[in-house]
Amino acid sequence: MLDLINVSYDTQIPNNVGLSSDKKVLKALERWHPGYINWWNDLIPQNFQESMVYLRTAVSVDPKGWAKFDYVKMPEYRWGVLLAPQVEDRRIPCGEHAGELAWQEVPGEYRNLMKRLIVIQGDTEPGSVEQQRYLGLTAPSLYDMRNLFQVNVEEGRHLWAMVYLLFKYFGKDGREEADDLLRRSSGSEEAPRMLGAFNEETPDWLSFFMFTYFTDRDGKMQLESLAQSGFDPLSRTCRFMLTEEAHHMFVGETGVGRTIQATCEAMVKAGISDPYDTDKVRSLGVIDLPTIQKKLNLHYTLSLDLFGQEVSTNAANAFNAGIKGRYMETRIQDDHRLTGDTYKVLDIVDGVLVERDVPALTAINMRLRDDYIRDASGGVGRWNKIIEKAGIEFELKLPHQAFNRKIGVFAGKDFDPEGNLVTGDEYDRGLPHWLPTHGDGDFIQSLMKPCYEPGKYASWIAPPKVGIDNKPGDFEYVKLHMA
Amino acid sequence: MTKRIDFQVDPSAYRHWRVEYDGPVANLFMDVDEDGGLFDGYQLKLNSYDLGVDIELADIVQRMRFEHPEVKVVVMRSAKDRVFCAGANIRMLGGAKHAHKVNFCKFTNETRNTFEAAEVDSGQKYIAAIKGACAGGGYELALACNHIMLTDDSSSSVALPEVPLLAVLPGTGGLTRVTDKRKVRRDLADVFCSTEEGVRGKRAQEWKLVDEVIPNSKFDETVDARARDFAASSTKPDVDKGIVLTALDRTFHEDGSVTYSTVEVQADRKGRTASITIHGPEGDPPADIAAFTAEGDQAWMLRAARELDDAILHLRLNEPELGLMVFKTQGDPETLLAHEALLMANRDHWLAGEVLQYWKRVLKRIDVTSRSMVALVEHGSCFAGILAEILWAVDRSYMMEDEFEGDNRPMATVTLSDANFGPMPMANGLTRLQTRFLGDDAALAGAEASKGEALEAEAADEAGLVTMILDDIDWEDEIRIFLEERASFSPDAMTGMEANLRFAGPETMETRIFGRLTAWQNWIFTRPNAVGEAGALQRYGTGQRGEFNMERV
């Protein structure tokens, strides 16, 4: 356990921001740190807190060796404050200040807007840890448990990263916001997390994999656009966070892939060729493919909501101010100001889906969502390869973006997963085939039995192809504390 | 924006509000229909409002008093998740003509005032229960309530972001109520009004922006409990049953004229003049207050107030070029005073009280109407008691003196009553006569001594109750010349001059809202920094910031 009174911030908190000599930030951090540790300790069941977990810790920003692996108790994890190296002569990439030198301090006129973006980003990081707090109890293997905890501690570090920015650049307001990041809590009636998807439960491991694949990918897109920020410290912070985020998406993609693998293998072994023969498939102790499709539908659509309204003033303001760019902003060939440009957004006119040109500045959210959809489709293709290889006729698909939406032009409208506007009656009848039912949830729960023996995996998930840090198959990724 | 804006609305046609009546507590839910804007070109997202939304709200507040006198506490809430109210719709403001903006703000200001008047006058208390974002006009709605409760979910906030976000003012009473009503210290108010994201949680309470901050999990039950507490400790007498406000009997004519049962509006577009003639009651008053109540909204005293109110609002919003309003009355002053006397004698009766208070509001509405206004006291007229107040609400009055050839109507008189000495105060807290005779106690005492006397021209002139008396020889020419001259002046200069001259005497929160705040707002509404092509209001939503001329004026 960290000695809270005598934290040596230069040795115990890996950092490249000169923490030990920055009195202002140190003072704020000393005040905030105990609350953070309490938050963490209250979060995850005690026996996991005491367990030794084989985790990677970010210790520098050297691309060749930024992390090291070792056993550590999670409360003693060294949450570092690391910013990607400063780029010489970096310029603001977009908006009305495009081409000017990037800001090293917060410009007063954009202070509130910038703070708000950082707070929203910061709020998602602990939110997902809260959503996943009990999953350790049903881990399908020690390998998966370790991955879960890796994702958790890194989300914790991302919270640190945002809190550092709040302390360093936003004074008293920033300190209050940092406190509130610990006060809000996922699904809480008292003070819920700011974004809807972070108040949903993550009830089982398939949800966790879907979440890390789809929802963390929204996080990636947001970080990508904040990495384009004209506010250099924010850009550098986000660039480094993206290094870690890649692993989270890996956990998601391979997790879903291994689930599909186990299903396909079991079906082939039992000689079942009809993927819709769900009773038979389920009796093999694996999750049937139609249910996996339903889970995909749910998590994908929840994640699309995170991009906000298709046409958004806030997004336009942030882009024009140079605080938040587009995905791969510097690689886009245009004037990066967009004042005269248009962009196509989907809309509904008289019940018909249409594309409509709107000023490009106001369609920043829509554009990022389009980039996300492209990005998210890659893994789905790879999952389908697994099914194809097993010789089963079934194809997973991303549903149409109008389906099951709570935010934006499609909110509350009855679209089916193909993007057809259907009657209320058709919608009600289709729903059990499109989204997980309580029955599906009960079935998945019935499979969620822990499997804590090194090298062993629950029936519904296949082992990974290679171990973490190239460890052998029976490596003990978590030394469980069984008090 | 050429379609006629109708200020009459039937509760069955509400698109934006819902009221749930629960004995002495009414729960008022704001649930604005995004696609229910009064005009094309904007969507009313996030419970933002336009004039149409406010017309419904004004109707609810009015009906609450007449149709639901059993209600002692009204709880204002949002029916939407995560947003209380985002304020006036910015795109609507951006697209509206200056005159519409100004009249929109005036009407919304009058409606906010009725929240407060409901408690002072009738003991109906409005409380705001805020969950989610409450910004700009949204917080101004809350400010008009007499108790503000905010949930402490670490994201719900109150804010007045107009200055940093739009380069205009929180002009629906916001700036004024923060300091004058909530007594927020002025430097904290300065911080609050220039911080776009506003203030939440404990600090909102410490700064007096809200009365209570409540843990989110206990919010709904605390609000319900507070509403019941207020209702239990209310001094408002119990009333079983209200009366129904039925649709007005009115006809709109091609030429702009409007006919009501007691009010006739005659439009003269060429002369830029609207004549408003009020016809006094014809029969005897109801025998007693029970009979009056039985007449419901058909009782002359209530019917005339509703019709006059509607006529004024219609002219303000729909006939901007009729710059001159000429008020006339016809009827028997004694009969009118008999109807009034029934109410004055029963002022403690709920309905009598409500009708008198309503006349007070209608007269205030006339006071702040930015048109040149004149009253003509002709033969056969009934400028007595409450209707005599019109003589001192308008800018000038002319009275017929002696007999006119070929005119056999009763001689023009002015008669004062108790109604002229207290129950119909102006926004400045004084009666119209006190304001008129500011610093001249003798004149005021003289007027009071004449109560009940039908004063003919010479006496009325002597008492200072009219501007000018004219006989048969001069009347026609003088009046014609005055009207023509008046209609030719710059409307801007007229509005400014009249608004200044009408409100002599002390400042109150109300006069500061209609005077200082509104005047500055209307100035800003004409400045390029807000409404120019590159102004903040026009640029809002495009992502580009407003471009400002940085020169201080």
UniProtKB/TrEMBL annotation, chain A:
<keyword id="KW-0560">Oxidoreductase</keyword>
<dbReference type="GO" id="GO:0010124">
    <property type="term" value="P:phenylacetate catabolic process"/>
</dbReference>
<dbReference type="GO" id="GO:0016491">
    <property type="term" value="F:oxidoreductase activity"/>
</dbReference>
<dbReference type="InterPro" id="IPR052703">
    <property type="entry name" value="Aromatic_CoA_ox/epox"/>
</dbReference>
<dbReference type="InterPro" id="IPR012348">
    <property type="entry name" value="RNR-like"/>
</dbReference>
<dbReference type="InterPro" id="IPR017635">
    <property type="entry name" value="Benzoyl_CoA_Oase_BoxB"/>
</dbReference>
<dbReference type="GO" id="GO:0005829">
    <property type="term" value="C:cytosol"/>
</dbReference>
<protein>
    <submittedName>
        <fullName>Benzoyl-CoA 2,3-epoxidase subunit BoxB</fullName>
        <ecNumber>1.14.13.208</ecNumber>
    </submittedName>
</protein>
<dbReference type="InterPro" id="IPR009078">
    <property type="entry name" value="Ferritin-like_SF"/>
</dbReference>
Automatic annotation (TrEMBL), chain B:
<dbReference type="InterPro" id="IPR029045">
    <property type="entry name" value="ClpP/crotonase-like_dom_sf"/>
</dbReference>
<dbReference type="InterPro" id="IPR001753">
    <property type="entry name" value="Enoyl-CoA_hydra/iso"/>
</dbReference>
<dbReference type="Pfam" id="PF00378">
    <property type="entry name" value="ECH_1"/>
</dbReference>
<keyword id="KW-0456">Lyase</keyword>
<dbReference type="GO" id="GO:0016829">
    <property type="term" value="F:lyase activity"/>
</dbReference>
<protein>
    <submittedName>
        <fullName>2,3-epoxybenzoyl-CoA dihydrolase</fullName>
        <ecNumber>4.1.2.44</ecNumber>
    </submittedName>
</protein>
<dbReference type="GO" id="GO:0006635">
    <property type="term" value="P:fatty acid beta-oxidation"/>
</dbReference>
<dbReference type="InterPro" id="IPR017633">
    <property type="entry name" value="Benz-CoA_dihydrodiol_lyase"/>
</dbReference>
